[in-house]
Amino acid sequence: MEDFTPTAAGPRTLRRGLQVLAALRDHGTDGLCVTDLARYTGIQRPTIYRLMAALMEAGLAQQVAGSKRYRAQLAQEAGAPDSDPRLRQTLPALRRLAERTGDAVFLVVRDGDESISLHREIGGYPVQILATYAGKRQPLGVGSGGMALLAALPDEEARSIVERNATHLDEYGGMTPHEMLRLVENTRSRGYAVVGNHAVRGALGVGCALLDTQGMPVLAISVTAIIDRMPAQRQREIAGWIQAELARLQNQN
Predict the structure, then answer these.
(1) In terms of C-beta density within 10 A (0-12 exposed, 13-18 middle, 19 or more buried), how is residue 16 classed?
(2) Half-sphere exposure of 33 (CA within 13 A, CB side)
(3) What are the start and end residues of each CATH 1.10.10.10 domain in the chain?
(4) DSSP character for 64?
(5) 232-252 and 85-101 helices cross at what angle (nearest 10)?
(6) pLDDT in tens, 133-186
(7) CA triplet 158, 161, 163: central angle to 5 degrees?
(8) How far is Cα 80 from Cα 222, in angstroms, rounded to an integer?
(9) What are the residues whose beta carbons fall under 8 Å from the beta carbon of 132, sequence distance 6 or more?
(10) Host H or E run for residue 15
């Protein structure tokens, strides 16, 4: 019989998760960093990180844009990723890519100077890159999906976005505006984005953007894996699979 006594690990983890969620809700949209959460709840920081990953995966919490703080996310908040028509449109493609590659597949869209991950589809390979999750915001260009979107913009607009985000880029593996602009040029010449070791150490992503009839980016799909699974030949292969799925989406419209 399953143990539901107060000392059972499951209920204890649940109580701690609820403690963290309550602290986040008490502090509204300003949010709390992990150190603050540990102080308010009495829970050690490594445990806080694990609990935050579970809360964000469940859509109950999200990172405050441009910071290391987290806030509670109410299920009825407007713009929740699962209500976005772009997710409904692309979900079959995301699942096919996850099955075909065995790796994590992401749907990424633009919101001003930021990218938002709308969905993460998990592949079957035993080691998955899961640091990016639905609802996570990053400066546009961080991560292969965001880079595909940034590189698809007119040059002047892309450079202005990088300039406005300059003060936040160092938080992502020491990224610099100069390096980001170099990645933009590489993405344009290659035809797809390849970004590694910036947002997530030990990871490399391949991303491609879907463009509208005016040539502007609508969304991006990316595949991310550990670096050992991403030699140059496989990068090209995955980019081709993503582009085929994006072409299928265009033909459906």
Answers:
(1) middle
(2) 4
(3) 12-72
(4) P
(5) 140
(6) 778 889 999 999 999 999 999 999 999 999 999 999 988 888 999 999 999 999
(7) 110
(8) 20
(9) 104, 106, 117, 120, 143, 199, 200, 224
(10) helix 9-26
- Provide mean pLDDT across the span 104-113: 94
Has domain 12-72 been given CATH number 3.40.50.300? no
Per residue in 20-38, pLDDT (tens digit) is 888 888 777 778 999 999 9
CA distance 243 to 209: 8
Q: What size, in residues, is the chain?
A: 253
Burial class from Cβ neighbours inside 10 Å (0-12, 13-18, 19+) for residue 80 reads middle
Distance CA 237, CA 224 (A): 13
Single-letter amino acid, residue 68: K
Place of tokens 């390979």: 125
Which two three-digit tokens encode residue 246?
């994006």
Is the pLDDT at 112 greater than 90, yes or no? Answer: yes
Contacts of 207-210 with CB under 8 Å at 24 or more apart are 207/106, 207/108, 207/143, 207/144, 207/145, 207/146, 207/147, 207/148, 207/242, 208/148, 208/239, 208/242, 208/243, 208/246, 209/148, 209/149, 209/151, 209/152, 209/246, 210/246, 210/249, 210/250
Look at 101 and 7; give whichever has higher pLDDT: 101
Q: Are 145 and 193 in contact (CB under 8 A)?
A: yes
Neighbouring C-beta atoms of residue 15, cutoff 10 Å:
11
Q: What is the model's pTM?
A: 0.69
Domain 85-251: homologous superfamily in CATH: GAF domain (3.30.450.40)
Q: Taking a C-beta distance cutoff of 8 angstroms, is the pair 142, 106 a contact?
A: no
